[in-house]
Amino acid sequence: MELINSLKVNIKKLNRQDISFVIFVCLIFTYTAILIGIRNAYGEPSIFFSNKNTENITNNLANDINSERNTDNSPKGEENFLINNITDNREAPSPTIIITIKSMTTTPKPTTKPTTKPPTSIPTTIPTTPVTDYSKPWEVSPGCPTTTQSCVPCITGEAYCRIESGKSNGFKGWACQNNNPGNIRPGSSKNTMISNNGGTPPCGERSGYMVFRTFNDGKNGLKAYLKGISNGQHSSYKNVALGIYCGECSLQFFFNIYAPAGDQNDPASYANYVANRIDVSSSNTMLSWIVANKLDAFADAIQTHEGWFTY
Description:
This protein is mainly α. The chain has helices at about 1-10, 15-40, 50-70, 75-90, 175-180, 190-195, 215-230, 250-260, 265-280, 285-295, 295-305, and strands spanning about 155, 160, 170, 205, 210, 240, 245.
């Protein structure tokens, strides 16, 4: 900067020829500075870029000025000032420009993968409704096994066909599926009477009738029930006004209570049927005598009339 300021002050005092020369010197200096800058930037010395050549160029330039000024009338002091400033600054190093490029690191945004639900598996099996085999008996009361008897199947409309609500198939008579050959109605006092006379109480009930575990339990339950009635243990089989107490009662009196007309029965016909089967009188033979002498035949006749249908 001092060199440039000095040149500005002294240019005013120079004539036209001197000004042209000074411009030439400035161009040479500029060119030299550019070459030095390129050398410092690339680090490759050349004969054009060495300090020695630059010094020679500068000395030659100074000599040319002295020889040129010998014929000029300009003041010597001004020449010497210009030359000295040129020669004194020839060794001035050019500034080195260092550019540092900082690497920029960017943190990538975390990539979130969309969550997809696994495909819902489609069942390969089609549920089927179980088919009921109406040719065989089925369980009719919780806790009671299915009868092993060969009950006769039937459909709606057939005689004596007993069908549960909501079904169109069933079996003839309730007695076979229930293992209840006497079609005895349920009741806790009846259960006690059966137990007290050597029978096995029912395991459940269905459609207003007792259900026994097996046919033998049902048949023995019927006999125990008849014994209890004959022994006066059932309060319904009495007629206090007439002084009739079963077992001192006829079959006609007995069946009016056992199979009343109000339950779609014919008590007189029922009594005659049984009397004929066991060869007794429906009006004169007493129940106590029948139970004591023909209990098995009596129970068999009741079983048949109640609708025990088997193969």
